Amino acid sequence: MDSLRHFPLGARLPESPHSVISSLPTMADVRGYEEQEPRVIDTLKSGYPRFVVHEFIRRLIDYYIKREGLANRAAVLIPNRRAADDLLAWLGQGFEKLEVEEALYLVFCEAWDEGRSHQLRKFVQHVGCGISSRQAEDLLISHGLLSARFEEPSFEGNAMSQVEQDLAGLIGCRGSDILVCASGMNAFYAGFRAVQEFNLTRGRSVWLQLGWLYLDSGKILEHQLLEGESLECIYDISDMDMVIRRIQALGKSLGAVVIECPSNPLVEVGDLNRIAAAVRGQGGVMMVDPTIASVYNVNILHHADMLVTSLTKYASIEGDVMIGALAVNPDSPFYGDLILRTSGYHQPAYSRDLSRLAYEMQIAPDVLERMNVNARRLTSFLKGHSAVSKVHVAHGSKYAGEIAKSEGSAGVVITIELSGSMEKFYDAVKVMKGPSFGARFTLLCPFMYLAHYDLVTSDEGRAFLTSVGINPELIRISVGEEDYGDIEAVFCEALDVSIS
Is the pLDDT of residue 115 over 80? Predict the structure, then answer.
């Protein structure tokens, strides 16, 4: 595997038009991406799909806009009527939808406006409801705009049944307890809306966020609450007695507790036993996201009423499928209420994405075994290097043993803080650099710059991050299956550069 090398700006790994990972090789490129510099944006033909509009999707939108006589409109494509209607309701006046294919909707501004265009993109980013690159590819071919599909191995047979069967074994439930969604964020959104709808029938209004949540999960909690609902955040969950007291104090107003376990980017493992017991004691709903470690490495469902996860990581071991899932715990007292409601909000995955995922899930367990071993070895190396001031990793956490499926199996994500220059290290390290994790190759990103650029570029934002224990300059590493000696050599070289 030729993955421990420099990748030029915009390069994909894997070299597939459906790759969700593209290269941002220097911090100047990262800043250029965030600030929408043409030098960077024009080079990116694809990227993490909720953030970068894929070239196939751009071409398809342009085709429909021209066909329908809608020049100078910003637009998105939504392959789900419920999601298109949710988008229109969220946006308010000034937007319309048009069914351009069966069950495919073009949602567009009535007139061009940069602010409205931004609103469209942000909703699709947060909710994960956009069309996939494979569906766009098929439609381009059907309209004579593309000659052939990209050839790739896929599962021959009933892919949905196979994926559900594999996930049921990994999560610890039945296939009927699982919904496979168009993305991990769509799984979170469907779960959120189902819990929200259920809690409104019970008169419960408070959402409690424990620890740091991934950007778009947090945005849904911030922006999708209804009148009378409120959100409380406890970012530091190291004082578990304080956390439990707060849960108990909320009493019958507690609607739901949302937590990532392990968290992103600090890879913290909370005491799910105590948290879940306290939430159940107050009659609240427990939502847990184990994406950072994955359902391959940790057992979570018995602590939760609902599990939501991205399958773009770990399950899509090649890093070329945008997809997610949610599961409702069959032992939850709320099972009947939640399972019915989630199906009304989720966006099903596209058939070809399912087939590709089913194929990759057959090889993922063997690959992950090698990745887990490499992650543990790299953790030891990083802890001993003078350029590294702090290492955050799940398998060393106090409560990791309560969720890990085997000793040390708490994922391949390592977050580090450096004593030297983060920029020197980032520019020097010879791996793929971009969003995502859990692929079979090593990759890393300056997470806070990509997820929270507004915070890291203001004094107030940096002060806030420091107050909640997050170093804006941290680096998130995802360890791959390459030869371990080669991985260590690459990191040793870059770390030495950071303190030179």
Answer: no
